[in-house]
Amino acid sequence: MKFRDLGKQYQAMKSDIDASINTVIEKANFIHGEQVSELEKCLAKYVGVRHCITCANGTDALQLALMAWGIGKGDAVFVPDFTFFASGEVVSAVGAVPVFVDVRQDTFNLDCNALERMVEKIEEEGRLRPAVVLAVDLFGQSAEYSRIWEIAKQHNMLVLEDGAQGFGGRIGERKACSFGDISTTSFFPAKPLGCYGDGGAVFTDYDEWADLIRSYCVHGKGFSKYDNVRIGMNSRLDTLQASVLLAKYPYFISRELEQVQTVAGWYEEQFNGIVKTPYVLEGYYSSWAQYTVKLLNREIRDGVMRLFAENGVPCAVYYEKPMHRQKAFRDYQYDEADYPISTELSRTVLSLPFHPYMSRDEVSLVGKLISEYAKEWE
Ligand SMILES: *Cc1c(COP(=O)(O)O)cnc(C)c1O
């Protein structure tokens, strides 16, 4: 069993991917080939925003957004405490301060009440200017943007949506990666829509920010790559990756997004109360970047992981360490008492094998192992 079976996925769409890659190699248009702009048009249309700007990875995408806004020294950026490191890393990278916020027990996403309290605390302290809410669509489910917009508006902040795990998800009819003033995603192979290496994209409705980001990602170019008007970076999606994504995209939309709903349904039936299964809010549609359950405590989680290992079932802990405890952020002062939920989650969550090509038998095996173990702890 594979945690995420990219081999099976390739077999399901091999001729399209091979043909797409071969076209690039034959034309040798490896950088800035027409497939890159074709992909950008296609993704912008799907998401429902004016601009999609591809770049080298999802981390750069976040950093480019912060650069376009001129975020830096003296700015506070509010980030969930329970997420992948990059969501906080980019904040420090531009010289601003990541202010971590606890998450919801059930959805694992930003807790809007905690967000409001933290923004007010920072305002009262008066050392930093609340500048951005960087919300994350964790494990495929979007954060609660209507409430996040309200809080952001009230405190004059911008919203940055980290949709690295959220692409393909929706709230009502509105697509993930359209919820931020700027939104980003990642095409890392294991993400909902993955390429065959690194890749990322920025989405926005605002022309001015789109132009700035197109400049920042090619050495701060002016009218050409050799006319440099600002300090930028070299962050491009190469044509081979764009061609892989163009080949995979139709399968993702027409087939995979439905298949992951089916697999999530099978898991839900399997567990039937034994473990806490993922909670999707009313009206939300998850793209299921991960299928993450909660065990009663760390001991039981360790036991389940051992049993999985003995039976060749892969699994992973996303995330073992809340952001406020990462050594890299040791120079900031965080109060342990602000993070009870993310601390508990880091001890109890377990992400199970999950992908669109998983069979019902594989799901049953995972369910059987957990039920077996459940008997022991009862
Ligand atoms: C994967 C991920 C990123 C970074 O994407 P890369 O393409 O690996 O740089 C950022 N944020 C979250 C929440 C992620 O899961």
What does this structure look like?
With about 375 residues, the protein is of the alpha/beta class. Helix content is about 45%, strand content about 15%. It is built from 11 helices and 12 strands. The strands form 3 sheets. The protein has a 7-stranded mixed β-sheet, with helices on both faces. A 3-stranded antiparallel β-sheet has the order 7-6-10, with no helix packed on it. The protein has a two-stranded antiparallel sheet with strand order 11-12. Helix 3 packs across helix 7. It is globular and about 65 Å long. The mean pLDDT is about 95. The structure holds pyridoxal-5'-phosphate. The site of pyridoxal-5'-phosphate has 15 residues, from helix 3 and helix 4.
Computed CA radius of gyration, to the nearest angstrom? 21 Å
Mean pLDDT across all residues, rounded?
A: 97
Structural class: alpha/beta
Number of strands: 12
How far apart, in Å, are the first and last alpha carbons? 28 Å
Q: Summarize the main sheet.
A: 7 strands, mixed
Low-pLDDT windows of residues = none
Q: Which ligands accompany this protein?
A: pyridoxal-5'-phosphate
**Helix-residue proportion:** 40-55%
What is the approximate shape? globular
Order of helices and strands: HHEHEHEHEHEEEEEHHEEHHEH
How do the strands of the widest beta sheet line up side by side?
1-9-8-5-4-2-3
Number of helices: 11
| Strand content range | 5-15%
